[in-house]
Amino acid sequence: MPDDLTLRSATELAGMLASRDVSPVELTEAFLARAKRFARLNAYITLDEEGALRAAREAEAELARGGGRGPLHGLPVAVKDQFDAKGVRTTLGGNIVDYVAEEDATAVARLRSAGAVLLGKLNLSEYALGGNVQHPFGVPRNPWDETRQAGQSSSGSGVAVAASLCAAALGGDTAGSIRGPAGWCGIVGLRPTWGAVSRHGAFPMAWFMDTIGPMTKTVDDAAMLHQVIAGSDPKDPYTSKRPVAPFEPNDDLQGMRIGVVRESVENGMASPEAAAALDAAMGVLTDAGASVGDASLPLFERGGLIANTLSDVEAAHTHRKWLRERAADYDFATRRRLMAASLVPGAVYAKLLRFRSLMRRHVMRELGRFDVLVTPAQPAGAPPIPTETGLTSKEAVMAQFFGIRSHRSPFNLSGVPAMAVPCGFTEGGLPLSAQLAARPFAENTLFRVGRAYQSRVDWHERRPPLEEAAA
């Protein structure tokens, strides 16, 4: 049955395509049908049926001739509507921009070069900022509980992968926008090393933290997509010229040193359920041969404050013209946030840059002691979808914009790779997630640890209990 196909991992589907057990057209039709059936989740902004089926037919014809473009040949994927895709509408999730791109973003072009079929563009928080209440294209709904949030920014990508509306997706991560939705939606989300993946053709937020990465059902899927999109690009001068090392699976973690950042689970920084799930995950990794110890990042609780203030100031600069000319076209919460960031004094910005440097020093120190650092990817299960900003006090602002984002911020501030991996569920059936971080360009270390974990658990094999809408 079509749903049996769509519920499988991307690597499994890629193998079936390569062995001709399923055709690109059959698979694409199955995903398109499922995306339309569950349109109420608001995962997509643009579902490009015509373009996807045309690409699927081309992929099928190439296979019939004995050819293949790469590891993703015929695999239906989707990308966050922050990235340009030739011939497809770009909106950035807001009311100001609406155009059809004449060129693929480099990451999108590399997906297509590897044979992927692009299903369409995915919903996101307004301009990839996160925190808006009104969504022009509908509020993305968490498929595990449709009254709950799907995460900030790359929300449509998280929903689409978790609900099996595409085989895999690309998201963007500045201060946690891949790992956050991945954590709440129960999927894998990789933030690569800063500079590992080209950002050409992606709308910016903060140039020194923006990244593009895969959002997938499994760690193997994430490794497969990362190998495709990573690498130097002359169109992005900040990309590294370092060769992309192939991932060689090894589920034995003998000699691997793992440090749990104690500040991430102490002093109320994680719910008891999230802390217990993380502790159980460390037990699994210990059984796999790793040694687990305590790590410390003294600035951990201030990570969200540092990262989000810096990124908001950068975003305010990017949006300055629209703020002057079209302020009313922003969601109220977004507009207030950008205007407030416009007033941050230069001295404060400079001081936060020093804190950023100090945070990186702490992270790199601990990554000298450990191969991988671990925190919860989210401090608790997904909260209800908000109907108002809730920004009624200084404390509320700190909690919403800085508190829950502290778990991911140390690693984007440091430019190191980090990955969210499902590690359990709350009593109410909401996903919980562990975050793994490693040294710069050590994505394969994350894949090794994450894969070893997933080979011993089944959290990633569970699917949301979606039901058809009543007639």
Description:
The protein has 471 residues and is an alpha/beta fold. The chain has a single domain, classed as Amidase signature (AS) domain (Amidase signature (AS) enzymes, Alpha-Beta Complex), CATH 3.90.1300.10. The protein is 38% helix and 14% strand. The protein is built from 16 helices and 13 strands. An 11-stranded mixed beta sheet has the order 1-5-2-6-8-7-12-13-11-9-10, with helices on both faces. A hairpin with an 8-residue loop joins strand 3 (89-90) and strand 4. Helix 3 (24-37) runs antiparallel to helix 4 (49-64) and helix 10 packs across helix 14 (394-403). The model has no long low-confidence stretch (mean pLDDT 95).
Q: Could you tell me the radius of gyration in angstroms?
A: 21 Å
Number of domains: 1
CATH class: Alpha Beta
Work out the helix count.
16
The CA-CA distance between the termini, in Å, is 22 Å
Number of DSSP strand runs: 13
Average pLDDT over all residues: 95
Largest sheet: 11 strands, mixed
CATH fold-type name: Amidase signature (AS) enzymes
Order of helices and strands: HHHEHEEEHEHEHEEHEHEHHHHEHHEEH
Can you tell me the residue ranges where pLDDT is under 50 for at least 5 consecutive residues?
none
**Strand arrangement, major sheet:** 1-5-2-6-8-7-12-13-11-9-10
Query: Any idea what the CATH architecture is?
Result: Alpha-Beta Complex
